[in-house]
Design brief:
31% strand; ten-stranded parallel beta sheet; mainly beta; 32 strands; UDP N-Acetylglucosamine Acyltransferase, domain 1; nine-stranded parallel beta sheet
Length: 272
């Protein structure tokens, strides 16, 4: 016990280890937890969930949150929720049933993943980001804080989406006339962009800050403004005299080409 004094009142509190005191709850029988998994205090894990080895799930998370039918149907059954190995799910994350998360994924706090998303290995999902269901995200993609991704959107490999960006899908809101965006591999989308319904953005594109993308963007293009306009090919684009793009040529940290460079890595991928 530890004595804490507030004013003239003395409190005696039990001191626990931070966040991992085995006070989480399992709801259901079909739950698989791998080796060396840590689960934080007050986290709830629902039925039909699998958690891979060495994964950390912090406090106050909900994993395998049921769909709405759970509350009204006696025959309801959760879809499989799978979290891979070596993941870090930070506090207050809500991950609905049916999500399939690859190995090595890291999330921020208070994310919300609705049903049936597929997220590739080594992705990062920032604080307060939402995936609204049936979203597919490739490997090594980075969604920063407060990104909103609508249902059925497709995001490729090695995509970066900066804070405050929104992907939309309702062509005539409010309606059921919906078509979701597709974002190509290696594209970087800067802060506070809006991607309108059905837009296709190609590979190795750069979307400037606060751009509203109203038309498809071809591969290797730079698009800026509201409405967005193509101003350059990516290889010719400069910022204060610096040619940084395509970004993988000049950025290696945490990437699979970190030790050998992007061009050599690309050649290996082509040979494979």
């Amino acid at each position: 016990m530890k004595q804490i004094t507030l004013g003239i009142i003395h409190y005696f509190l039990k001191v626990n280890t931070m966040k991992f005191n085995n006070t989480f709850r399992l709801i259901g029988n079909n739950i698989s937890i791998g080796k060396n998994v840590k689960i934080g205090d007050d986290t709830i894990i629902y039925d039909n969930t699998s958690i891979g080895d060495n994964t950390i799930i912090a406090n106050n998370c909900i994993i395998g949150e049921p769909s709405v039918d759970y509350y009204y149907s006696d025959n309801y059954a959760n879809n499989l929720t799978s979290i891979g190995q070596n993941c870090l799910i930070r506090s207050h994350a809500i991950i609905y049933n049916g999500n399939i998360l690859g190995d090595g994924i890291t999330t921020g706090h208070r994310i919300m993943l609705r049903e049936n998303n597929i997220v590739g290995e080594k992705c990062r999902i920032g604080n307060y980001t939402e995936l609204h269901g049936n979203v597919k995200i490739g490997k090594y993609s980075n969604l920063h804080s407060s990104v909103c991704v609508v249902e059925n959107a497709i995001i490729g490999d090695f995509v970066w989406i900066a804070p405050g960006t929104i992907l939309t899908n309702d062509l005539t809101p409010p309606s059921n006339n919906k078509k979701s965006p597709i974002i190509g591999d290696f594209t970087f989308i800067a802060v506070n962009c809006v991607i309108l319904p059905g837009i296709k953005i190609g590979i190795h594109c750069l979307i400037g800050a606060s751009t509203t993308v109203t038309r498809d963007v071809a591969d290797y293009s730079v698009c800026v403004g509201s409405p967005g306009k193509i101003i350059s090919e990516i290889k010719d684009f400069e910022i204060k005299g610096i040619k940084h793009y395509p970004w993988p040529v000049n950025f290696r940290k945490g990437m699979p080409w970190e030790t050998i460079g992007f061009e050599n890595w690309s050649k290996q991928m082509d040979n494979d």
